[in-house]
Input
Amino acid sequence: MSLIIAEKIEKSYATNAALRGVSITIEPREWVSITGPSGSGKSTLMNILGGLDLPSSGCVRLNGTDICALSEDALARFRRETIGYIFQQSHLIPYLSATENVMLCQYFHSIPDEDEAREALRRVGLGHRLDHKPSQLSGGEQQRVCIARALINSPKLLLADEPTGNLDRENTRVVLELLKRMFDEEHFTIVLVTHDPFVAEWAGRVVGMEDGHIVLDRKTGRGSI
Output
């Protein structure tokens, strides 16, 4: 069964149409990059696929559930149980340590477990930064905390919106190599939004958008199981 089935998605804001009848299917264990210029609709599409926003019309089925039909509370619960998120800004709590930031995500999902949180940080190469606050971490290290936080609850889907947008090329490569290793080991699905062709090509499939439409959908031979 396909993990994501989106059919004829429309999204309008006042007089602006962000998405114009977009349909897309994404399979389990697939890594898909969504690319396009600013205003093309790529982040809007990702937000709708991840239940962070609702379409004006059309429907999205995620892991067999019509997420557009869920109540606000049910949708929030579904997101916690199914999806991990990484954004361009780390959104780490500044007065919490790296471990505590990961545990906070556990708290909203089920039960915080400090040992599990510390192990998740060790897996992303931050065993020496467990008790550091975000201000004591580099940009690349902060994004690695975000990866640990996003994956701590074993989501079926990882959504990443410009996750390397604030990083230099060296740290971008480090973050992508880490994502690729964990993707290969744990076999979740990734939908990643980026304007950077270097980042896009790490995926097994690249979807290009312009003016609210999908104008490109091609396999790269990388990134998918």
In short: The longest strand covers residues 16-26.
